[in-house]
Amino acid sequence: xxxxxxxxxxxxxxxxxxxxxxxxxxxxxxxxxxxxxxxxxxxxxxxxxxxxxxxxxxxxxxxxxxxxxxxxxxxxxxxxxxxxxxxxxxxxxxxxxxxxxxxxxxxxxxxxxxxxxxxxxxxxxxxxxxxxxxxxxxxxxxxxxxxxxxxxxxxxxxxxxxxxxxxxxxxxxxxxxxxxxxxxxxxxxxxxxxxxxxxxxxxxxxxxxxxxxxxxxxxxxxxxxxxxxxxxxxxxxxxxxxxxxxxxxxxxxxxxxxxxxxxxxxxx
Length: 268
Hints:
Layout: E1 4-12, H1 18-28, E2 32-44, E3 47-53, H2 56-67, E4 74-77, H3 83-95, E5 101-103, H4 120-128, E6 134-135, H5 139-146, H6 154-166, E7 171-174, E8 183-190, E9 195-201, H7 211-224, H8 229-247
Parallel strand pairs: 1-2, 1-4, 4-5, 5-6, 6-7
Antiparallel strand pairs: 2-3, 7-8, 8-9
Helix pairs in contact: 1-7, 2-3, 3-4, 5-6, 7-8
């Protein structure tokens, strides 16, 4: 059977993040991608100029259309900007009994523009985090979700991961891309107490738009192909590193350009 993954996320008109990045990642990794659009954004490499939320009932209609027909093996959830949208997605996930959920708690775009309404944070924690097989916050998102200071050490990252496990997620990936130093450190913690430290050289590039979306989509692609969460995370992180290295050579836009999702096929 062809592995199928679904992205439930916002649309990025600039093409570098959101469901566009997710679908590119699925395709690059050999997975058929379907989509449920939760919001339309007017954005480019310089920032977000507008957000138009899709009505919750139409989000539910998209979910029912996709899951009633396709044999979905994994779900990646991204931008959900409003409480009612989160409720619609959580209810849909429950209705279709989806357990292979990769949740990227998108709060702020690479440009600094806020994508999640403050009132939606509590709903996200209560309704969606308990469904997450894998939760992939960056350092600011992990701090916001745990009401803790921004983690400056691996010990602080570990404490926040454990706090997020307590909210119901099964595996946490605290992403260190916002940290300092020559290496970017990601910390994987699961419910059993297992911990894995991933260290990759930090790439000197401004083309980092969509990195979080790409990693989460890569994890979902791996899970759709039958990988264990830990193996899917490590494979997705290697793919992202290669996409960052190749993306540094792209000339797209005048702000934060995208990573290179198809680096293995394009001639650059």
